[in-house]
Amino acid sequence: MFGGRGRLSAIVFHVDYTDLQVQTVIRPTVVDISNAAAATIDGAELEGVVRVGSRITAGGHLNWMNARYGQYLAVVSTTASADVAGNRLSNAPEWSGRAWAEWRPGVGRLGRLAVRVEGRRQSTVFFSPFNDAVQRQTPYGLLDASVELTPRGGRWGIQLYGQNLADARYVTVTSAAPPPAIGGRPGVPRRLGLHLTVLR
Cα–Cα distance between 71 and 127 in angstroms, integer? Predict the structure, then answer.
C-alpha cells in the first residue's frame, strides 16, 4: 500500500476444541481440573504498518474474538455443578487492539535514537467459566513509551522506558472459594526504568 510504504494483513479464523481443560477453585487448596466437552473460537484480526515520511513509522492491530464454551458442566463445589454452555472462555476479550508510533530522528555521530509510544486496550474479560460480575476485569487501556539510544557500532545501548504511564488499575487473574473469598493478581502499576545493554 502507498507505494510500498504500508502493509495491511487480515485473518479470519475458527478454532474447534474438544476436551478443553478448565481449572476451577472449589474450596481453599482444592482445584478442579476438568475437560470441557467443547469450545469454539471465531475471530478476525487486522494488522497494519505504514511509514510516515522517512523517520516515522506507525502501526497497530484490531482483534475481534467470540470464544465460548460448548457443552460444559463446571464444578461449583464438591457436590454441585452448573451448565455454562454459551459462556465466554476465561481471559478471552471480545475486542482488543494496539497502536504504536516510532520516531527515529537523526542524531549524527551519536548513533541511532528511537522514540516509541504504544497504547493497548481490551474489552471485558472473565476469569471463571460462570462469567460472574465479580471475577472479571472491565475494559482498560495501557500506555507505554520509551527512548532508546544506540551509539555507532552498536556495542551498547541505553533505554529509558515507562510502562502503564496512566497508572491504570486492573487485575490479570482472580480466584474464589466458598465461603466468599476472592483474590486477584494486580497488573503492573506505573513503572519507570532504565535499561542498559552491553554486547561482548
Answer: 18
Are the C-beta atoms of 97 and 113 separated by less than 8 Å? no
Q: How confident is the model at residue 37 (pLDDT cuts 50, 70, 90)?
A: confident
All structural domains of the chain: 2-198 (2.40.170.20)
What's the grid cell of residue 111?
548513533
pTM metric for this prediction = 0.84
Mapped to the 3 state alphabet, what secondary structure does the chain carry? CHHHCEEEEEEEEEEEEEEEEEEEEEECCEEEEEEEEEEEEEEEEEEEEEEECCCEEEEEEEEEEEEEECCCEEEEECCEEEECCCCECCCCCCEEEEEEEEECCECHHHCEEEEEEEEEEECCEECCCCCCCCCEECCEEEEEEEEEEECCCCCEEEEEEEECCCCCCCEEEEEEECCCEEEEEECCCCEEEEEEEECC
What mean pLDDT do residues 67-75 have? Answer: 86
